[in-house]
Design goal:
The protein is an alpha+beta fold. It is 22% helix and 29% strand. It has three helices and seven strands. It has a five-stranded mixed sheet. Strands 3-4 form a two-stranded antiparallel sheet.
Length: 97
């Protein structure tokens, strides 16, 4: 049992976040990759412009919306990071929520 867990943690995937390559353990969410990369904030509120970042990490708050492989408004906390994935934050694109 413990060996299976150790093997899973030993694997990793590399994603691109705003052009920066970030390596995270396999099975990590895109939100976890954002946090590892220090991409905080990852977007701004459409109403007030205040900074936003992954918060609840379970799909309830929608504060972690990013563009993933060209598809906008994806919840980073509900998406598993895959090798070669291209993530674009709204902070980088200059867009609001």
């Amino acid at each position: 049992m413990y060996q299976l867990l150790a093997d899973a943690l030993a694997r990793s995937v590399t994603v691109s976040i705003d052009g920066e390559r970030v390596t995270v353990p396999a099975g990590s969410s895109v939100a976890a990759a954002l946090l590892v990369a220090g991409r905080i904030p990852s977007r701004a509120s459409a109403v007030s412009g205040s900074p936003r970042a992954p918060y609840c990490m379970m799909g309830v708050c929608f504060e972690c919306l990013v563009e993933i492989d060209g598809v906008p408004q994806r919840q980073a906390c509900m998406t598993i990071a895959c090798d070669g994935m291209n993530v674009r934050t709204r902070s980088a694109s200059g867009e609001g929520a």
